Amino acid sequence: EAQVTQNPRYLITVTGKKLTVTCSQNMNHEYMSWYRQDPGLGLRQIYYSMNVEVTDKGDVPEGYKVSRKEKRNFPLILESPSPNQTSLYFCASRRGGGSSEQYFGPGTRLTVT
Amino acid sequence: AQSVTQPDIHITVSEGASLELRCNYSYGATPYLFWYVQSPGQGLQLLLKYFSGDTLVQGIKGFEAEFKRSQSSFNLRKPSVHWSDAAEYFCAVGAIGNTPLVFGKGTRLSVIA
To answer: Is the pLDDT of residue A10 over 90?
Structure first.
């Protein structure tokens, strides 16, 4: 089954404790993205990657890091989480090209206290 | 760069009534247009997409959307809403090449008996 998986689905952590949210896709997609969703703000892109070892900042990259060492994986790293990073996070993937459908993971609910 | 506006933050309709969700886009060329739905606690699922050709596109769950170039719009419609349609709906626009999809802020649909 074609899918994007994220782990963990729920995470409660404390300020400053480094964490990684994993994302993996099994569709051999070139393009992967991370979004955060906050009430009233919709989906905002954090980072995206057009292929292995190619990443770029989205609209709200501050406080986040990503890496793309393999085509299928695109982890999101919060080196020093802060309460304003409490949010719902989605990973997504699609084939290259603007016309292709984007597939979303189930989301990770992160709370930073 | 492309942009998307969903003018309605929240819409309430009665079960069985018709529905139209508005989406306006800005892009200099023919855009790639998408509608996604996010049910409570779920990820985003593609409802339908427009690339070219027939301006009226059919999607899943009985939804359709019409591309109107003159109005820069891609409104989502359903003739008879079911309670299970209560969700958040996102319009998105893609451009030629490997550029990120741009999402609107979403419209939350409530369905009342």
So the answer is: yes
